[in-house]
Amino acid sequence: MIATVFPFRTVLVQILVLFLAIAIESWFLQKLLKLGPKTSVEYAAILNLSCTCMGWLVFFGLESVLSKELRERLIDYLLLGGERDFYFIITGIALSILLVTFLAKWQALELLENTLYGKKKTAVPTEFKRSFTLTRRPPKRSFKVTTQFGAIFISHTVSNCLILTVLFFQSID
């Protein structure tokens, strides 16, 4: 009875997605924000698990207000891998979800660090002394991500691109 009702495939894919996201995002957080390995895995796990839980709560909240026909089509598509005739709608929803989860992760990381370490935002000094002479060249500028926004943006983008690639290959019959 439970095998016909419980969507094992969806749960397993969600677990795979979470493991991939945590592994990729923790590596980027460790490298870009100079966090320790344990701390970066904890941050990535907290951020991804909270976004996943909130996503499922929003999904079940929104699904309850849909019409019966649309609700059945949506649940059939997401949980059982059914109809594939409304990819355009699902793609639009997925892109908006990616943006919302990125913003949620960024704000959650700031909130997490503020609550754990009591960090206060400090103003960055805007004065830079530059002394250029004829014999001295200006220092080379290199691309460095030191902000939480940039680190979360890069890690979220890379992990979601890889996850979408895995899901694409999984959907090929």
Secondary structure elements and their pairing?
Blueprint: H1 2-5, H2 8-33, H3 37-63, H4 68-80, H5 87-117, H6 148-171
Helix pairs in contact: 2-3, 2-6, 3-5, 5-6
Task: Give a description of the structure.
Helix 2 (8-33) packs across helix 3 (37-63) and helix 3 (37-63) crosses helix 5. This protein has helices at 2-5, 8-33, 37-63, 68-80, 87-117, 148-171. Residues 122-129 have low confidence and may be disordered. The chain is elongated and about 50 Å long. The two termini are 27 Å apart. The chain is an all-alpha fold and 173 residues long.
| Unreliable parts | 122-129
How many helix segments? 6
Distance from N terminus to C terminus (CA atoms, Å) equals: 27 Å
Sheet-strand content, in percent, reads: under 5%
Main pleated-sheet profile = none
Question: What value does the Rg take, in angstroms?
Answer: 21 Å
* SSE ordering: HHHHHH
Overall pLDDT confidence: 78
Structural class: mainly alpha
Number of strands: 0
The helix content is: over 70%
Overall outline? elongated
